[in-house]
Recover the amino acids of this structure.
């Protein structure tokens, strides 16, 4: 395997990405969220850091610097070696950029829209949707970035429907450990973590 | 619930959609595949029915009659009442059309790219990919239709990674039964199967 392993966590709003990213942090040097990178950039530009401004900034960055702009900001935050968890990957453009700089494992966290809506409408973060319409609009925005493609191509799919956070965390950890060890075992270290680079499984 | 329930099965090539669709057939009057509708149309037009021609025809139908063209052909094959399994739904445009004519439950079947490639390259259907490059190209084509959005918004996610077909079939059946019964139990029959219509959960 190459020197860097990037465990890319994706999922729709309210699916439980942060629980999974935190858990996978045990396998990594550091957890870096795509949002952190945008927040950094917002600070550099003297902008507020509420969800709406952040989403607009992420959008603007993509327009200015291409669809993988945020991934590039994240890469600047990483050292040359080690395993990292990248929380909040949103498109295959970003995955492509990450693959250039490390072996990528995509972990998707899934919950049904109904479950996600109920979680988001009760967790009470200021930016969470207040109505079903707002929720659907945010989903559509995420899908517009291409998050569906990342979910569809996940190496590990963690279903977070009726489970406790501990169960989900353990399931994700176990599955990613399996992928990491099978990747390590394969000839010359070429394995699952490599197979997205288009060079054959 | 409305008179028609449409259990829409989606998933990337090699994920195991057909096993799940067949299993869910137990809950339905009939299983109709999106491919069947395209094949019908191919016959009407005097075209061959290999995968390539079928995918091209589906594409052409979408260009001629809009992105939900195949869904509309499927609807013509259904009666006014009853539960149907629709195998091979590929976009949210199709889901929107189905929602107009029934309560929709989206069931996504997921397997990692590595597992799907290994399945497809050993099952030996004439149109299955012969190389990793062909496999990736077909995945990208499917994602181009918007299948990622349908997977991301699934009401039920069935992970088909290390399981036997029987296990997968049973898991899918149990999960869809749960959704159906919770939809039935809710006030006035408005429940999960309705919630995608944008009217609140």
């Amino acid at each position: 395997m190459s020197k860097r392993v990037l465990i890319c966590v994706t999922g729709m709003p309210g699916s439980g990405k942060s629980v999974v990213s935190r858990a996978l942090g045990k396998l990594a040097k550091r957890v870096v969220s795509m949002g952190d990178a945008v927040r950094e950039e917002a600070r550099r530009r003297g902008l507020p850091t509420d969800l709406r401004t952040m989403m607009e900034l992420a959008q603007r960055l993509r327009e200015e610097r291409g669809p993988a702009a945020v991934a590039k900001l994240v890469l600047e935050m990483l050292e040359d070696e080690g395993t990292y968890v990248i929380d909040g990957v949103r498109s295959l453009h970003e995955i492509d950029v990450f693959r250039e700089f490390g072996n990528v494992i995509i972990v998707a966290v899934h919950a049904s829209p109904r479950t996600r809506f109920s979680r988001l409408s009760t967790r009470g973060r200021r930016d969470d949707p207040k109505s079903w319409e707002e929720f659907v609009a945010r989903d559509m925005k995420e899908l517009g970035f291409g998050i569906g493609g990342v979910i569809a191509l996940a190496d590990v799919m963690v279903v977070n429907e009726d489970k406790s956070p501990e169960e989900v965390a353990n399931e994700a950890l176990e599955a990613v450990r399996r992928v990491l060890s099978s990747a390590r075992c394969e000839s010359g270290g070429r394995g699952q973590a490599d197979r997205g680079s288009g060079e054959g499984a």
